[in-house]
Design a protein that fits this description.
Layout: E1 9-10, H1 12-45, H2 47-69, E2 82-83, E3 86-87, E4 104-105, H3 106-111
Parallel strand pairs: 1-4
Antiparallel strand pairs: 2-3
Helix pairs in contact: 1-2
The structure holds zinc ion.
Zinc ion binds near residues 97 and 99.
Length: about 110
């Protein structure tokens, strides 16, 4: 890692991988928000449908949070949300090197 690198400017490849982490964060929020009404609708048809839908959605939620937990920082290659055994669920910067989730690409930075 280059110590002189700015944490709010990233290479095109880093920006792309950061947007993947942002997408995961959004899905982790959206999943329960969208899932709860679906569970209620399914449950109102038949209570056991609601239960089945709940378990299916919970399994996907588990997959999403696991992917998010294991996401690597594109710059330092460490876990983006995880340092010293502590997980930072919605870190807006890498907890290891400080690379910001909303970092601009080098091209954008040059224009401004
Ligand atoms: Zn990092």
């Amino acid at each position: 890692m280059n110590e002189n690198q700015s944490t709010d400017v990233a290479t095109a490849e880093e920006v792309e991988r950061l947007s993947g982490i942002r997408r995961l964060q959004k899905r982790i929020w959206a999943w329960p928000l969208a899932g709860v009404p679906i569970i209620f609708v399914a449950g109102s048809v038949r209570p056991e449908y609601g239960l089945v839908v709940f378990f299916v959605l919970a399994a996907f939620f588990f997959v999403l949070t696991t992917q998010h937990m294991l996401a690597r920082c594109p710059r330092c290659q460490q876990y983006f949300n995880w340092s010293g055994g502590r997980r930072h669920k919605f870190a807006d910067a890498c907890v290891n090197c400080g690379l910001e989730l909303g970092a601009r690409s080098e091209d954008q930075a040059r224009l401004h």
